[in-house]
Amino acid sequence: MRRFLLLLSLAVSATAAPAQTWTTQRPPAGLFALTDVHFTDASHGYASAAVGGLLKTMNGGQTWASLPSGVPSSLRDVHFSSADSGYVVGNVGVVIRTVDGGASWQRHDLANNGASVNGVYSHSSRRALVTQGDQIFRTTNGGQTWTVAYTYNGALPIFTFRFLEFVTPSLGYAVGGYAGSMGGTTQVVKTTDGGATWTLLPNLVAGGTAVGPAAAVAFPTAQHGYVADVNRRLFRTTDGGQTWTLAGQNNFGSFYGMHFVGPSTGYGVGDTGNIQYTTDGGQTWTAQGTNTDDTYANVYFPAPTVGYAVGSDAGAGPRVLKFTNPMAIKPAGPLAGLVAYPNPATTAVQLPPLPASLSGQATLLAADGRVVLRQPLRAATASALLTASLPAGLYVLRIEAGQYATQQKLMVK
């Protein structure tokens, strides 16, 4: 008998879950844990690793090649301005630069006391910014010389920049803080001229409670930003960092990296295989982790429907996961609660009518993401999706109407 098994927990979800999930890529052996990842387009990406390791892909993660960096120290952050030109930074002041896609690297370390370089942003092969300690450094000649663009001048007795995030080539944020016996605090500085000058923004405060040291940061737009602290709280700004509110607390685990593909839709990764996504600005999160052994250091989406998470497996070896989803994540909105029926069904599934003034389509996808059926939907009009010719197996039924979408998993038997 042919029937559909409806997974009710997904049918009543207020947000649409992805039709596909994360799949393991195959980085070359011999590397240690990965620390960061950045893509310049859908094909070209780079990942940094502990003990001087580097990875490169030129085919969207299908294959990864190991690149010699020439440095033994751990690398922390990577950013490329084009497929061939970029900078990587790491421990003991290390800054390396390539202009030939990683075939060769030049050392342009900071003159320092051995402190780590935590963040990097590359405007071009010659213009770049890095953070070290309580300072932001800038180069305009490919790293030949570095000048101090900003030194922290706030109230904290000890301060270290950890993150460097740019929304546009002109508008960017640097985030850091202090952690010690007296607690922890995070502060943000902002630039509107590409990093030439910086302005200290107010302390991150929500309900009178100072944000602890930042663990992950994302700024998807000029006004929208997110900071996850070490206390498993998420803070959000909608006015460019002037004020912050508590968006979520203890509902997403610990984050070491975040990336938002829109003002309210984003992903966070962390330890014990933690991968989460949100479509409501961090108020609620949905788990997507594939195991509890991995530790993910960062996540990056070159496109709203394609992303990469990097970190380590249980043995501290490199781990790369790729997310592909043929359909963008959208809020359910007025489609929440729509359920196809009957359950079980034999030869057809009845599709519920859309709310008034909305039209759209129903799409049935196989478990591997292939579209197998499509059906137009009209407002206030019920219709049926014929399923008699489908082989038994797991399917996902997605209903879309404008900016809204909802979906449910179905099993044909």
From TrEMBL:
PANTHER family: PHOTOSYSTEM II STABILITY/ASSEMBLY FACTOR HCF136, CHLOROPLASTIC, PHOTOSYSTEM II STABILITY_ASSEMBLY FACTOR HCF136, CHLOROPLASTIC. Residues 1-19 form the signal peptide. InterPro entries: BNR_rpt, PSII_CF48-like_dom, Secre_tail, WD40/YVTN_repeat-like_dom_sf. It holds the Pfam family BNR. This is YCF48-related protein. SUPFAM superfamilies: Oligoxyloglucan reducing end-specific cellobiohydrolase. Keywords: Photosynthesis, Photosystem II, Signal. Residues 20-148 form the Photosynthesis system II assembly factor Ycf48/Hcf136-like domain.
